[in-house]
Amino acid sequence: MAKINPAFGKELQKFGSVNFNACYNCGNCTAVCSLSTTENSFPRNMVRLSALGLEEEIQSSLKPWECYYCGECTTYCPQEANPGELMMALRRYLTSKYDWTGLSGLLYKSLPTTIAAFILVFAGVIAFALSVNFELDTLLHIGHLFEMIAIGTIGVVILLPNILRMWHYTILKPGVKVPFRKYLSSMGELFVHMFTQKRALGCDDNQKRWFEHLILVFGYLALLFTTVFLNWFSTESVFVQVFGYLVSAIVFVVTIDFVSGRVKKNKEVNKHSQPSDWLFVIWLFLMGFTAFMVRLFIDFDWLESNKWLYIFHFTVLAQWALLIVPFGKWTHFLYRSFAMYFARLKE
Ligand code: SF4
Ligand code: SF4
Question: Do both 209 and 341 map to the same domain?
Fold first, then answer.
């Protein structure tokens, strides 16, 4: 028998849902959603499951990840029940369920805890800088080492087990039988969605946002590759130096448009920004901008007398790598790609 959680609505409010209990089940939202199909319809049924508190059904569902938040459903909802924002809140809720550490839920639900975590990381960076007497070469060396170790450790210790938990909730627990060869033959789906998010093109009027997103993903991955594997801050290669400038500029210039959209609240998607949304776009901007400035200061020989700039960059980097990537909105990029893969397995 299906288990009902009567407090589920209250729980979802903490993840950012707005007024979804006002829904009177008319179905307009599903009718206008360009990604919803007869066999796989949403968001109305997710609104119903949430109102009824059917948590297990929600945990086994991939539908919240199939929504790319164009906001059409919210615009046409006669009850102002904000189905688009509910889908976003469900993605945050699911992220907290997949995360074995429980930290995602804690950070999503409590702003003071988030602020405390960011301050703690800042204090850690300052303590480390003090311990090496603010010696620039050591700071640069350890900063580079930190990036490499953080990527490997977070991938293996946090993200991989969380993907397995997602697989458990959505494939194993509901008893979906998938032949092993289908796991292999559907693998392409995972990478295509991961790098292109092509399904977002199915949303009406979403082409500009999709294109910006695509450029940002490639800019971000290229910046990661340039700083971690090509050691951008220490390289003598002019090609790598110029390439680093280019990709870091792409990251912060494109992000400015995302931040300004949230400030102006010019679309449905930007009207109800949660702290996790702000942190994601602002820290992405800071990552690109401070990396660009650090390399510029190195090239003009100004960094030795402005070590604060590298410490600022290192702090942003550490907060991004230790908080936003494993527990914040960055994970949506990963879970959404795996959701497309799992949806293919379920077909
Ligand atoms: S359009 Fe609004 S009221 Fe109608 S089913 Fe969707 S959420 Fe409910
Ligand atoms: S936000 Fe857009 S994609 Fe998501 S459910 Fe609503 S109409 Fe569909």
Answer: yes
217 burial (CB, 10 Å; 0-12 / 13-18 / 19+) is middle
Q: Which domain holds residue 80?
A: 8-98
Asked if 94 and 132 sit in the same domain, the reply is no
In terms of domains, do 199 and 92 share one? Answer: no
Q: What's this model's pTM, rounded to 2 decimal places?
A: 0.93
Distances (CA, A) of 147 to 16, 71, 116, 226, 269: 32, 36, 22, 12, 32
Q: Could you tell me if the CB of 88 is within 6 A of ligand 2?
A: no
C-beta 74 within 6 A of ligand 1: no
Q: Of 98, 127, 155, which residue is a domain's last? A: 98
Residue indicated by tokens 């990396």 = 291
In-domain check, residue 2? no
Q: What pLDDT, in 10s, does the model give residues 87-120?
A: 999 999 999 999 999 999 999 999 999 999 999 9
Lookup: tokens for 46 = 């997710």
